[in-house]
Amino acid sequence: MIHFTSDQWLEWLGLYFWPLLRILALISTAPILSERSIPKRVKIGLAILITIIVAPTLPPVNVPIFSAPALWVGLQQILIGVAIGFTMQFAFAAVRMAGELIGLQMGLSFATFFDPGSRLNMPIIARIIDLLAMLLFMAFDGHLWLISMLVDTFHTLPIGGDAVNSNAFMALTRAAGLIFISGLMLALPLITLLLTVNLALGLLNRMAPQLSVFVIGFPITLTVGMLLISLLMPLIAPLLRALIQRGI
Q1: pTM of the complete model
Q2: Residue 77 CA to its chain's centroid (Å)
Q3: CA of 121: how far to CAs of 110, 111, 127, 186, in Å?
Q4: What's the rounded mean pLDDT across residues 158-165?
Q5: How far is Cα 93 from Cα 145, in angstroms, rounded to an integer?
Q6: Could you report the per-residue pLDDT of 33-78, keeping only the tens digit for each?
Q7: Is residue 84 part of a domain?
Q8: How many domains does the chain have?
């Protein structure tokens, strides 16, 4: 009969416990995987499955689970997983921001949609572009890239190493700073054309005051905005792909 000591059990448990923390933190914050519509059992099961596949390829960690240093190691794994997930969320935040800017210029800032995932009211144009970004993320195998990048972090940021430092937080801050720039660049063509339409309506109001710009302005900007979105839709996919790859 085979017998195992308590130290052997703890060593075996640590081999799977530390990677599981990092993977669970990523799944809790990553795009699509963190959606409330996905049951928690599915998320935990996916994390355990990835852990079972990845853990045997990792070197053992000489940190007992029930010790003071284990608290810092566990916090490191959670921070790394959360940082990776938030980095990808920044790409989707830029897409949502672009949708909000477009909806504002089209006069649809009042048209909101309740998002059951975030439980927040989101402008309808932002929701449409956000759903498009999610579909493109799956079509570009972004979920596979994300898992592949997570597995690579176990070698570039090994468990028990000095993974959390000021440089890592500065990189995360720079990634967050790209939200406004990327969102503005994504919405800039539509914003420019819709501003031109609004300027033309303003000149029309000065030249023909008898025309009610408030009556004809909204249908015109809405129609022009929808036409521009349909015309620029083939160009949105490459921009979203570049934005997602930058986040990955």
Answers
A1: 0.75
A2: 19
A3: 10, 9, 10, 22
A4: 66
A5: 19
A6: 888 878 889 888 988 898 888 888 888 777 777 777 778 888 888 8
A7: yes
A8: 1
